[in-house]
Amino acid sequence: MPKLLLLFTVFLLMTAVCAGGRETGSPALIPPSALASQEAAAEPAPKPSPPANKTTGRTDNTGKTKRSRTLTLAQLHRKYPQLLILNGNPLVRQAALTFDDAPDNKYTPRVLDVLREHHVQATFFVVGWRAEKYPDVIRRMVREGHIIGNHSYSHADLSRLSDTRFQTEIRQTEMVIHHLTGYTPKLVRPPYGSIKEHQLLWLESRNSLVTNWNVDSLDWRGLKAPQVTRNVLSTMKPGAIILQHSSGGRGIDMTGTVQALPTIITKLQGEGYELVTLPELLHISKSK
Ligand SMILES: [Zn+2]
């Protein structure tokens, strides 16, 4: 009897260990499409300045046992100001409206309607799988003079990916965009603004340019129009790259973004800002 009891206990212990192994291993098995469905649900955490600096917290939390020290986005920008762009010339009264997570068939067309009414061109950072799903929206962007940038294929946090997967995210999206627009975009905006040093250098070696932002509407939270407007106008400055979203994560209502846009455009133009695309703001080519 004691022997049987011992065997049974060993069996129970082994079962528990195996189950634990499966559980901790499972996140790596999430397919891109599943990751993509979470997209925009966790855009950069609210940080007044500098923008998109969330790598710091992650590093601090895990720093002890991790590999070599990871530079925060602020440190990366200081080290490579020409490779990780946050703004244009602060002496020129221009600004660029940028919209991440495009396209969808609900909010992006409404954003395009507003831009057309006001004769303003913007820059859209598109997610590869979404571009494949809504190709006509991308074609409309091009037709109406907007610029397309690369926002990865599945909206993954690129800084957490293997080199192979990271490069696939970029290349795959380039191919989708090239197929739809006829050009390979030079501009890359990593989801959550998050990128590592060696990834930045790899992108540079391929003639890509990482363009984040320095004015954050925080609209991805599904804010009401007056709050979105306030977030933008209260932090505006010449040379600003303004971050907004033209579609939301699952269940996020982006009506506030659409409704805020006419006011934002009118007020900025009233304050003497010229609203331009990112290539115009930075004096670079849209393609490579
Ligand atoms: Zn995004």
TrEMBL record:
Pfam families: Polysacc_deac_1 (PF01522). Residues 34-44 have a biased composition (Low complexity). CDD domains: CE4_NodB_like_6s_7s. Gene3D superfamilies: Glycoside hydrolase/deacetylase. GO terms for biological process: carbohydrate metabolic process. Residues 34-68 are annotated as: Disordered. Residues 1-19 form the signal peptide. Residues 93-276 form the NodB homology domain. It is an enzyme of class 3 (hydrolase). Keywords: Hydrolase, Metal-binding, Signal. InterPro entries: Glyco_hydro/deAcase_b/a-brl, NODB_dom, Polysacc_deacetylase_ArnD. One of its GO terms (molecular function) is hydrolase activity, acting on carbon-nitrogen (but not peptide) bonds. Residues 53-62 have a biased composition (Polar residues). Its EC number is 3.-.-.-. GO terms for cellular component: membrane. This is Polysaccharide deacetylase family protein. The lineage of its organism: Bacteria, Bacillati, Bacillota, Bacilli, Bacillales.
